[in-house]
């Protein structure tokens, strides 16, 4: 996360200041880490909290919380609701990684540069830690006080539940498991990843937008941005699985090819996949322009970061 992107704002004012994306990102990451540390695994019994915190803290790009916070900022949404939403979507992401890494799924031993949760704590505790993280996500979205209006709470819960369930992440993982060794065309591959990976990224933007009242055209434009970004993320992920080593990637490289899983690289070739990622980046940026929002610099910089990342 060492990006140093400087962006000029989406305005014609000649004297407008530059946008220091790195400074913005570091501030948001610090706030997110503080919130996660405060909320995750506190008072959980029988060392369950330790496994939960191991799964969430001190690792990960935090792309999903950053997308929530950037989208909320773009639409001038409620900051407290946005932080809770960002942490909630990160907990869903973390729980999915815990379960995906287990022997019954991808059977991986390395995640974020350290042993996976089931290797560190055993399969039973890893399963419970994932379950607890999923439940905690929705607890964060429904605080007992009036910090987040009930209507926004309900909308956030619905968006996240849909993205995580059978019509989202879980459904995409099911397709992934059923597709091993099969030849998928681009449309089938896109559908699988739009559910498995894209749904949660799209939900991150939608949850940020849900922290404010916006017009349908703005909502539609940001939805198109999120869709393009979600596919681009997976395309780059497939490229990195081929070209990056374990130390850089933080997880076991080459697993897709070893397991005969269909990828954008296997479908398009390495150069074709890289070119496709740049096409998707331009689609995402065009959607931001179409939103006519006065300040989408953070969302724009995040799109650039997704496509140019090395891990």
Automatic annotation (TrEMBL):
Keyword set, alphabetical order: Isoprene biosynthesis, Magnesium, Metal-binding, Transferase
Cofactors demanded by this protein: Mg(2+)
Pfam families recorded: polyprenyl_synt (PF00348)
Family matches, as InterPro entries: Isoprenoid_synthase_dom_sf, Polyprenyl_synt, Polyprenyl_synt_CS, Prenyl_diphosphate_synthase
Keyword Magnesium: yes
Family as reported in the entry's similarity comment: Belongs to the FPP/GGPP synthase family.
Protein name in UniProt: Polyprenyl synthetase family protein
Species whose genome carries this gene: Comamonas avium
Organism lineage: Bacteria, Pseudomonadati, Pseudomonadota, Betaproteobacteria, Burkholderiales
């Amino acid at each position: 996360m060492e990006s140093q992107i400087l962006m000029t704002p989406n305005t014609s004012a000649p004297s407008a200041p530059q946008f220091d994306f790195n400074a913005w990102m570091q501030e948001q990451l610090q706030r997110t880490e503080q919130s996660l540390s405060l909320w995750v695994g506190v008072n959980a019994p029988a060392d369950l909290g330790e496994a939960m915190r191991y799964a969430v803290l001190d690792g990960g790009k935090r792309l999903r919380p950053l997308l929530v916070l950037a989208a909320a900022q773009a639409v001038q949404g409620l900051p407290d609701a946005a932080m809770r939403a960002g942490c909630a979507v990160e907990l869903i992401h973390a729980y999915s990684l815990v379960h995906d890494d287990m022997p019954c799924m991808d059977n991986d031993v390395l995640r974020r540069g350290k042993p996976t949760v089931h290797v560190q704590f055993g399969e039973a505790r890893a399963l419970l830690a994932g379950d607890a993280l999923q439940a905690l996500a929705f607890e964060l979205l429904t605080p007992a006080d009036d910090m987040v209006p009930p209507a926004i709470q309900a909308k956030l819960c619905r968006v996240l539940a849909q993205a995580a369930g059978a019509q989202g992440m879980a459904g995409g993982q099911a397709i992934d498991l059923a597709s091993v060794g099969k030849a998928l065309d681009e449309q089938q591959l896109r559908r699988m990843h739009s559910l498995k990976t894209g749904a949660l990224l799209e939900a991150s933007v939608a949850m940020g937008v849900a922290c404010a009242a916006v017009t349908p055209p703005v909502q539609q434009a940001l939805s198109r941005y999120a869709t393009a970004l979600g596919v681009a993320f997976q395309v780059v992920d497939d490229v990195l699985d081929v070209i990056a080593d374990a130390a850089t990637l933080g997880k076991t490289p080459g697993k897709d090819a070893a397991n005969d899983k269909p990828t954008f690289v296997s479908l398009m070739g390495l150069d074709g996949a890289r070119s496709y990622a740049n096409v998707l980046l331009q689609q995402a940026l065009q959607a931001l322009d179409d939103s006519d929002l006065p300040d989408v610099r953070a969302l724009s910089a995040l799109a650039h970061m997704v496509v140019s990342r090395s891990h």
